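2024-03-11 09:14:02 DEBUG pipeline.ingest accepted 1 chain
2024-03-11 09:14:02 DEBUG pipeline.ingest length=216
2024-03-11 09:14:03 DEBUG pipeline.predict start
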Amino acid sequence: MNQVKPLPGYLVQRYHGWKATGYAENKAWYRRLASDGQHPRAMVISCCDSRVHVTSIFGADQGEFFIHRNIANLVPPYQPDGDHHGTSAAVEYAVNMLNVAHLIVLGHSSCGGIQGCIDMCKGHAPELEGPNSFVGRWMDILKPKFDLVAAENDPITQAQQLEKHAVLTSLENLLTFPFVKSRVGDGLLTLHGLWTDIGEGGLEYFNPEKQVFQPV
């Protein structure tokens, strides 16, 4: 473990600044969170992209959201094969242990994972095609949906369309989890699909009646 180093100085300074202000001014709240445990009403599945800041978008405090982040906010199909499934484990914990009432999938503009999927589908990303590419194999979840956007000539529009299909794919796959489907059917859990435009600060939701994304 000699390769592990102390935190960079700028992060240490930021921590001490937070401890002296943000924490000190809300010490009772943090101690209550620690003693009472977490009781989030919603789980949010979003992208790892550093530009996507879920708590800022909704003005949320600590303890409000159970957040899981991965490449391109994808949820794989239910597959209890005894292997390692981080996203599926997070969904199971949120639904079965935390009893969240809402499960939100949040996609975003300019997603690098989505662009990687497009490049793979066009044969422009051989580095993602090999069996050793974790990103490539993860994006295989979405590859079948590329046919739905392949005819689009504008690259930005094509990417945004596939970003939204990624949200819908995750929602579809969530319903393959028996414990998710049963709770949705019993009215104990609702699913929501969102897409945010980073540059414009826009937020769209999937309207199931019209089968389109609309501004919130």
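2024-03-11 09:14:41 DEBUG pipeline.report Residues 128 and 136 are 4 Å apart (CA to CA).
2024-03-11 09:14:41 DEBUG pipeline.predict end
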